[in-house]
Amino acid sequence: MKDAVILILLILALILLFEWLKLKRLHKSAPVVTDEAPSPPQERSPDRVIERLLNAFPGPFFSINAEGKFIRTNLAAQNIFTERNLQGRSIQSIFLEAPLIEKIQEALKSWEPNSTVIQLPANSPFSQSALGKDSHWEIDLSPISLRSNTQELQIIMREITTSIHTEQVRQDFVANASHELRTPLSIISGYLENLTEDDALEDPEMSKKMLHTMVRHVNRINRIVEDMLVISKLESEDGMPLNIEDFAIGPCVRDVVERLEPLINSQQAKLTIDIPEIPLAGDRFYWTQILFNLVENALKQNASTPVHIQIIGKLIGSDRFELQIKDDGIGIPSADLPFIFKRFFRVEKHHSQSQVKGTGLGLSIVKRAVEAHQGNITASSTPGVETSFTIIVPVR
Ligand code: ADP
Q: What is the pTM of this model?
């Protein structure tokens, strides 16, 4: 009897032990439920947080150790050096840009924070977005360790190519504008000096001639100032002050032709107009300016031979309007064609025998006015055969 009781107790103890082991195993594999939102363990590691922060930075970032070897990079840097793993590589084996290496080596030597601006050549991997031109960078070099036990130099790079170019364009504009204004002004002041000298006024024929030349140059100054005002309005930072309204291009063309009639007649130019009556939305003032500049150019550049100018408009599909101004005159040499929309650009040889030159601003006004209407303009030229300016704009 006693043996039977011991046996039963033993069996009970075994069952209890078995159940306890089963419960323990279940407890281990069951998920822990807490109030906190679950997050993957790697997200919480400091390295991962740093990596996420650095990837959020739009410019390239490099971290190097005291031997000049890469420790970490961000996404923007990896996008520049796509096929190469930089980790553990030396800066000299990756960067081929001498000014960049020089600045880094200086910082590694002094171990002092340093900010600098460098220009990198067009063929550098850093110049990808500069479209075949040199790129400009602002670089911060900071000896800050992201890990406590290592000496690190952090290199943060920001591209400033666009703002450098904008500044360059502004400086060129001021220099060119001053130069363009100085020429007629010095001619006028020269003639004024002659006229005020002794008996110059006693020769009425000569005085009249001088006064006429002065008037031409005053008109030129006026035109330059007017063109500069239009350009600066078109480029104003508060956006284009376009006065968009429904208008028909036909009457606009007729206005321009009327204004240029004396020139057309005196040059015996032929004009063909083929414009369908399509209602457009746009700023009539700027459309008149666009048409005037293009037709006047075709006349002005072909003053000595009768030129045939065509103004042709047509709908492309249902939502775009194409306007072409063509002439069969002197044309534009292919080497000059890429530059004609630049401010103050003039084809040199067109003006060797010139009386009063154009401002060189006409086509840049045209381009900006077309772009302000969400359109684009292209030019092609076979000198002596056909020179054509094609504008495409949305109808609405
Ligand atoms: P400009 O005031 O000198 O006419 P534009 O910006 O209007 O300045 O034109 C730039 C240059 O492009 C002109 O100086 C001229 O050499 C050339 N050009 C423009 N239109 C024509 C054309 N229809 N035929 C020949 N050359 C042209």
A: 0.64
**Is 180's C-beta closer than 6 angstroms to any atom of ligand 1?**
no
Residue numbers of the chain with a pLDDT score lower than 70: 1-44, 148, 198, 237-241, 349-357
- Cβ–ligand 1 contact at 141 (below 6 Å): no
* Cα-to-centroid distance, 243 and ligand 1 (Å): 27
Contact 330 CB / ligand 1 (< 6 Å)? yes
340 lines ligand 1 (CB under 6 A): yes
Which CATH homologous superfamily contains domain 42-159?
A: PAS domain (3.30.450.20)
CA-to-CA separations, 368 to 58, 60, 262, 286, in angstroms, rounded:
30, 33, 28, 10
The 3-state DSSP class for residue 190 equals helix
Pick from 367, 285, 373, 372: nearest CA to 321: 373
Q: What is the CATH superfamily name and number for domain 168-394?
A: Histidine kinase-like ATPase, C-terminal domain (3.30.565.10)
